[in-house]
């Protein structure tokens, strides 16, 4: 998923552990009016689960909505609305019995039909969901998204009010993990149709079936809150009454508010982390992420491989991560994040099995040579490129470094940094309305395909519009012919990333760290799952 804010998606599977003291699953809050305040550095763009791509929204959805499963420590799936699952011997049919008595915050019952409606809405081309591709492998999903079949033919059926039948075209090894991701959550058809295009644009224009309800968000708010949902089926285990959110774009302001106990937790910059290295409240939360440059390959300049290689070789990733950021970010030599998944046979990390090409190593001399050759081949001289990125403080540091190093090592190149609000950046990226942009992806589940999928030719999240037939073929094989062959599937994905990196389909820069100040009074679970979130259902204060 995209992340323009490094908000509460701070913990990924990349080496993070259970951070805070685990609380009892059966205990109650120490106070009936428990309330905490957290910071975020960006506004909410939308709460429509069919349309969002932002980490910020997915964290709110994970705490205000609920699907068939929840994802726990080490990405373990835990039953939520699902009460019983029966999988066919060939792994292609899932029959799921739903929990009775689950309600939306407006009192409507949550039924099997709500899942059917939600899934059909997301894959419907008219919805323009950027996450519809995750349904690939569910019967007819691809044909529906290609406008070749009706959404009503999707492989999900309601067998009465409380039973679902899901039909896959082939076994999907990570399918249960997908069921714990918000894109697969239910939606109340009555509410969606009531608000139409305005659905999810304000907190009172949707309903909630999770532990909390979002309130006081009007679409542009800089403050909002989650309040306990008294219609939630498991409300007795929800320990907090209210979680206040405050948009704090200046890290120093956030730190000051934390020091004055106005915030119970806040993210900080690398420079702040260096100054607070002996503070017990400082915690680095590794993320399952990849930050990279997308070069618009519909442009003549960036169609040239030597140009792409030159740009990559002009970047000193160690300088970028250690001196510019200094927040625990690191160069993993990969697009897929380190710590996400291991070889089913050897136990080696995915990044250890793949190859890092010479073009991802800092080599200014070779970069200059390739740059000059590439310019000659394209017939372009003295190119002027705009670098699009968000306007958060750490993002600005990255783009300033990139501007300086690229102009220094690539003769005749002029870079203009365009740092604008994150919501606008996401919109521009989705329309490929850029020349060069700082992109990012956070894992949605603990499998390399969560990264590799997005760079297939027709994927809506393929921002650089890179295309490679062999890459597409390998990714398809990993989910079809090799889906039930763990080693073959793994090799498909390894080969695919090797092709991607050698061809510089993107320019990987770093895997993000995230230093936070977290009060010792705040206890609860932080999940070790891809695209992770704070599980505020279990959180509480002393």
UniProtKB/TrEMBL annotation:
Annotated InterPro entries: Peptide/Ni-bd (IPR030678), SBP_5 (IPR039424), SBP_5_CS (IPR023765), SBP_5_dom (IPR000914)
Domain of life: Bacteria
Membrane topology listed for this record: Lipid-anchor
Keywords for this protein: Peptide transport, Protein transport, Signal, Transport
GO molecular function: peptide transmembrane transporter activity
Gene Ontology cellular component terms for the protein in this record: ATP-binding cassette (ABC) transporter complex; outer membrane-bounded periplasmic space
Claim: Nucleotide-binding is one of the keywords in the record: no
Leader peptide range in chain numbering: 1-21
Subcellular location(s) of the protein: Cell membrane
Family annotation (Pfam families): SBP_bac_5
Domain Solute-binding protein family, residue spans: 78-462
Any one of the GO BP annotations: peptide transport
Gene3D superfamilies in the cross-refs: Dipeptide-binding Protein, Domain 1, Dipeptide-binding Protein, Domain 3, Periplasmic binding protein-like II
Cited PANTHER family: PERIPLASMIC BINDING COMPONENT OF ABC TRANSPORTER, PERIPLASMIC OLIGOPEPTIDE-BINDING PROTEIN-RELATED
Protein family according to the UniProt entry: Belongs to the bacterial solute-binding protein 5 family.
Protein name listed in UniProt: ABC transporter periplasmic protein
Source lineage: Bacteria, Bacillati, Bacillota, Bacilli, Lactobacillales
